[in-house]
Write a structure and sequence with these properties.
This protein is an alpha/beta fold. The chain folds into two domains: about 165-250, Roll (Diaminopimelate Epimerase, Chain A, domain 1), CATH 3.10.310.70; about 255-595, Metal-dependent hydrolases (TIM Barrel). The protein has an eight-stranded parallel sheet. A six-stranded mixed sheet has the order 3-2-7-22-23-24, covered by helices on one side. A six-stranded mixed sheet has the order 9-10-11-12-14-13. Strand 9 (about 135-140), helix 4 (about 145-160) and strand 10 form a beta-alpha-beta unit. Helix 3 packs across helix 8 (about 255-275) and helix 11 packs parallel to helix 12. The longest helix is centred in the first third of the chain and has 39 residues, at about 15-50. The termini are far apart. The model is unreliable at about 1-25 and about 50-55 (pLDDT under 50).
């Protein structure tokens, strides 16, 4: 850019020259003053440092340095090092800056370039059941009747003194007609009662000995909340749906207190080794609060637990509120807290017990059923909300989800507690016109991504029952996000493993572990890696109104961190499931460390 010069007339040269000289002198003084003001803070800091008045940060207890830190904090997504004092993060930044937090007693871990993430939250577990399940026949991943029988046969032979043979993890599609039969179990366990629960927990498969002990015959009526599956002659086949399972399970000896404690210690270790640092218990934990308290006292609790109380139809009574408030007053900190209730509104699609708006494909007139009267359910949600209690509702079918949305919207608007965040658990098949409703900030879509693995053994019964049109709205993670909704991811352990990495892979690929279908099942619902990580971290914290204290790696937040075996940002998505935690930190304490 050129500046045009202007000549000064000769007759004005003295005056003009004098004015210019004064202006130059004034500008010089202003410039010097400006420079001095800029340098003053630096000079003061230098002086304070020389005289010892600037204090170094207090030494940290633990520093993790040389890492690739993905913080889940949009204002500082990546860093190299983290410093921890007590239970809290005090610094996130560069390796060089982290050195200021090192003291004589500081433990320093060299991450050697590994990926560091916030600890994962499992937003839906049954921690007692999952822990006890570690000592039962594991049928997860079985694909044929023969494979299932071999695992049961081997377990029974290795445990000759067990009065009952129990297991879990089979799927409907492994059996002819998508339903198990007692004859397959009789062939491998003829002399003792046996019960094998389906992976989804909604169907039990029992042998003839178990039916005999329970007195279940062709004359036994179905319970109000379940069904005894029968053959064309009316004989029980050994498959028990929903509440009918209790006819047999009530006869199984309860585990002793010490057996439960030992199982829970194993469960804690299992969660920590996969990088789960917090879990939302949604059934089976409330009755065992004292056991968790004992684990905490002895130093065995390595996972933060938020526990709900189970409430069933027709709704909570005053004695329920008293029990809840007493437990809430006793257990209410960042390690063990009673918060909220769990309601169960319907069943599952695989067995046709989820509540649908239209009949199941090929099942004329059958659309499942609600486990609550709609009026009772809405009244229960309203009363709980009026008392400031969070509600989590098992809602899988589109009819159940619609009713849950109705109740939550009413409660958030009218209860006087708009700050509550109510959760819809599973959310497997949503009506097309209901997606915009998930934009309500007080409604959380709580999904379990591994449930959507499109492996034919796992999903074929589900897909067949909903039909092609409803299939397109299956497990709609991206649609909920596009509506402005909030995702919280979990496992539903022991329905599937508490290990989150296979679920994270499914959330991104929507392919089974053989890469099928290529490009993903309903690919429009796939998430980015960043979106899926958020759902397992800050999303779970948000669901519990705790996003200000955990869920991301930021100064002031709880030091719940996981250092991974591989960088999931740098490997093919198909390999994410092989990830594990080499270092798990909860509240600044190392609770798991691999030999690496």
């Amino acid at each position: 850019m050129k500046i045009k010069s202007t000549e000064i007339p000769l007759k004005h040269s003295r005056v003009a020259g004098t004015n210019l000289s004064r202006k130059s002198s004034t500008d010089g003084r202003k410039s010097a003053r400006s420079i001095f003001m800029l340098l003053l803070p630096v000079l003061l800091l230098s002086l304070l440092a020389i005289t010892g008045c600037v204090r170094k940060p207090e030494p940290a207890d633990l520093i993790i340095t040389g890492a690739k830190v993905y913080t889940v904090n949009p204002s500082q997504p990546w860093a190299e090092a983290v410093a921890i004092k007590g239970e809290q993060i005090v610094f996130v930044g560069s390796n060089r800056q982290a050195k200021k937090y090192a003291g004589p007693a500081t433990k320093i871990i060299q991450a050697e370039g590994r990926l560091l993430l916030p600890g994962f939250q499992d937003s839906h577990v049954h921690f007692v059941g999952g822990s006890l399940n570690l000592n039962l026949v594991d049928l997860a991943g079985t694909r044929t009747v023969e494979e299932i029988q071999e695992r049961i046969r081997k377990f029974a032979a290795e445990h000759p003194d067990l009065p009952w043979i129990q297991g879990r993890g089979w799927m409907y599609s492994a059996f002819p007609g998508d339903m198990p039969h007692k004859k397959y179990l009789d062939e491998v366990v003829p002399d003792r009662p046996a019960i094998m629960r389906c992976a989804d927990g909604h169907t039990s498969w029992v042998n003839s000995k178990a039916l005999e002990l329970a007195g279940i015959t062709r004359k036994t009526p179905d319970p109000p909340d379940g069904k005894i599956v029968r053959d064309d002659k009316g004989e029980p086949t050994g498959a028990l749906l929903e509440g009918a399972s209790y006819l047999v399970s009530r006869l199984i000896p309860r585990p002793t207190r010490e057996e439960k404690l030992e199982a829970l210690r194993l469960g804690m270790k299992e969660a920590a080794r996969w990088g789960v640092t917090c879990a939302h218990g949604l059934g089976g934990e409330f009755e065992d609060l004292e056991l968790f308290d004992q684990l905490r006292a002895e130093g065995s609790q390595t996972v933060r637990l938020v526990i709900t109380m189970w409430v069933s139809e027709p709704g909570p009574q005053e004695k329920d509120f008293q029990a809840y408030e007493a437990a809430r007053a006793k257990y209410n900190d960042r390690w063990l807290a009673v918060r909220g209730v769990k309601l169960m509104l319907d069943g599952v699609i695989d067995s046709g017990t989820a509540a649908m708006l239209e009949p199941y494909e090929g099942m004329k007139g059958h659309s499942g059923k609600l486990f609550w009267e709609p009026e009772d359910y809405i009244n229960a949600v309203m009363e709980l909300s009026r008392r400031g209690i969070q509600v989590s509702t098992h809602s899988i079918g589109d009819r159940a989800i619609k009713l849950t949305l109705d109740a939550y919207e009413k409660a958030l608007k009218e209860s006087g507690h708009p700050e509550l965040r109510h959760k819809i658990e599973h959310v497997e098949c949503v009506a097309a016109d209901d997606f915009p409703r998930f934009g309500n900030p007080g409604i959380i879509a709580s999904f379990q991504p591994l449930h959507a693995c499109p492996d034919p053994v796992w999903m074929s019964a589900w897909i067949k029952n909903v039909g092609p049109e409803r299939e397109q709205r299956a497990f709609p993670w991206k649609s909920v996000l596009k509506a402005g909704g909030h995702l919280a991811f979990g496992s539903d352990w022991p329905v599937v493993t508490i290990n989150p990495w296979p679920g994270l892979q499914i959330a991104i690929t929507r392919e089974d572990f053989e890469g099928k279908p290529a490009g993903g099942w309903i690919p429009g619902e796939k998430l980015t890696l960043e979106e899926a990580i958020r759902a397992y971290t800050i999303g779970g914290a948000y669901a519990l109104n705790e996003e200000n204290i955990r869920g991301s790696i930021e100064p002031g937040k709880l030091a719940d961190l996981i250092l991974l075996s591989q960088n999931i940002f740098e490997i093919p998505a198909s390999q994410i499931r092989h990830t594990y935690s080499v270092l798990t930190v909860v509240g600044g304490r190392i609770v798991h460390q691999s030999e690496e």
